[in-house]
UniProtKB/TrEMBL annotation:
GO MF annotation list: carbohydrate binding; glycosyltransferase activity; hydrolase activity, hydrolyzing O-glycosyl compounds
Annotated active site: 481
Segments forming domain Glycoside hydrolase family 65 C-terminal: 691-752
Protein name from the UniProt record: Glycoside hydrolase family 65 central catalytic
Residues that bind substrate: 351-352, 594-595
Pfam family, one: Glyco_hydro_65C
UniProt domain Glycoside hydrolase family 65 central catalytic: residue ranges: 316-682
GO biological process, one term: carbohydrate metabolic process
Amino acid sequence: MKRLFAVDEWKVTEEGLHPKENRLAESITSLGNGHMGMRGNFEEDYSNDTHQGFYVAGVYYPDKTRVGWWKNGYPEYFAKVLNATNVIGLRVVINGTPVDLAKWEVRDFTRELDMQRGVLTRTFTLMNGTEETKVEVVRFFSIVDKEILAIRYNVTPVNYEAKIEFTPYLDGDVVNEDSNYDEKFWLPVDRGVEERFAFVTTKTKKLDWHVTASMIADVEGARCEVLEATDLFVANKFTVNVAAGETATAYKYVSVVTNRDHEIEALQSAGMTRVEAAFEKGFETLLAEQTEAWLARWEDADVRIDGDIEAQQGIRFNIFNMYQTYTGEDSRLNIGPKGFTGEKYGGATYWDTEAYCLHFYLATAKPEVSWNLLKYRHNQLPQAKENAVKNVGMEGALYPMVTMNGEECHNEWEITHEEIHRNGAIAHAIFNYTNFTGDKSYLGQYGLEVLVEISRYWASRVNFVPHKDVYMILGVTGPNEYDNNVNNNWYTNLIAAWTLEYTQEVYNYLKDAEPARLEELVSTLGITDAELAKWADIQTKMYYPKDDLVPDVFMQQDGFMDKEQILVKDLDPKHLPLNQNWSWDRILRSNFIKQADVLQGLYTFGDRFTVEQKRANFDFYEPRTVHESSLSPCVYSIIAAEVGYEDKAVELYQRSARLDLDNYNNDTEDGLHITSMVGSWMSIVHGFAGMRIQEDNLSFSPMIPKDWNGYSFNMLWRGHHLTVTSSREQVTIKQTGGTDVTIHVYGNAVTVPANESITIETVKA
Ligand code: BGC
């Protein structure tokens, strides 16, 4: 493995320019603030390979579907994450020669991501004969003023006098790399330019998304000219003479506002007001605010690892990117698998959000953030109902596999129509929210509506088999996408039955706690006693596949043991990854498993299975799993930690912790694996620290990977700000502020008073 980035606790630094790996470096050095974000592109011209990408949350394009063989029910459009106006552009010309790192002799290049402060800095030296020029570029996307980004560009001609021209510009003439018909997606709407100020408004060819980018630029002591604009391009040019050893500094402040947050008519003035306010504050103040806000965020979310700096960098990189992508103020937004770092996968929302990301936000942010993730699905209930009825001929609601606005946009029948377990994850998120926060108000307000419609879907999707007196679910794809169109995927059947049971439980709860609200819901949703009875019948008579060959193992699906049983270790490594080397039919016929499936069930419903059951299933499935989804290793790692397989737990943790930093899957150039980043956090907190919440009890049973001296993480639980520190000798739980809180450690209840800590001896496995 070739490592491009230096290992450091808080920084990720590319040392030296790597033109061949530029896309990888651009992905890794992406910046974002939940509202917008971009790849680590250069401000100045660059004529070598680059993937220009600047994305605005929730602004997308419905690209016409392109498939070889159309099937009924396929969506007509695939929602694309949309590359928007180039907002960072800043052309630099030194004594008549444009700066282009592909053409100049470049020395001492660094591109450095500071995760502690959310800042990207590039430094380099340009050589032209003996003339030496030092450059430092700093930029950040403010997490305080979300519509603002700021750039400071310093040029120092070290040993000669230079005439320097800076041309800050906005360019709306951009393309998507991911476009089905090589179309451009934007149209010009309006633009304006004067000295030190310019704006461009563009709108998408479909759906009328309007985006206004406005800039104020300044270079001290420079002459400013207004350059001729085109429909999509506006620029100023600043010219300044700089003495040897002096520094010329260009500042560029940009606001990006959209009709998601403003009236279309108000965009121009909103953009101008925002950018003027940023300019008034000035770069240093904005930067100081940015630093303070990121430090505060780390107070709630940091994980520290003592004794393994690579692991430390990995977990911080992942946490940093989760918060760059989603901050949870807006229930119309969600967490795309690539966030703001690339276009692949389109869409914004997969089951990844509920099955994975939610756990992280529950424990590191205020409950409102998770509430908004849940509310997002409630907002989209009408489309999910339409999807069930129109596309798959069922009742109730089927949430899409991939979506932006609630409509399905994925078009592979085995996933779109068959990977229906996703519905269960959405129901289970409601349970997780309520279980973690103790706040039951979501259930009556929105939860039951979603649960009832999902239950209706399951009730219409099951198949009653009279001669066996069981319900089955036929023709599905489980989480393991290397098996399609199977009958009775154990995990799907389990989560379907669980949804029916939980819906009844919530119904009963509301009957006591909010009878008037329940009555209202019963009437608007038309819930009948017969329907509830039917759900109970399905739940109790759900069929789960078994095989006498391996009686202790939950069978992933009917017929799994009829496949030739081969272990990954016995496979010639040249076949791996299977998805790049094998034909699809060969993958489907094999027993190899892409990602956690039965294990996903054991993790999701951990309290319903014994440690012995978990161990038996781990022993059977892990050797058959190729982990070709980045969502996979963390689930196995958590179960491994629970059943006492320490080495395995650590090995699997490592796979998810540095997946992108070390480019394990050789695809990080397309963007980061945002939704699975949370997996490394889950491996530490749910896995190594054994955090569980059950019936209002928060519990831990920490173990320590043998190469680490210890680890520590911050979390929020029901208004308590906790720091859990685990070393070889002791476990300490500290509370900052708060009131007395009772926690179970290794099964024993301990009380942690406000602003105090308690210490317990570590129990060795
Ligand atoms: C996985 C899915 C996941 C998707 C997006 C696929 O490779 O199999 O489970 O939802 O990636 O992360």
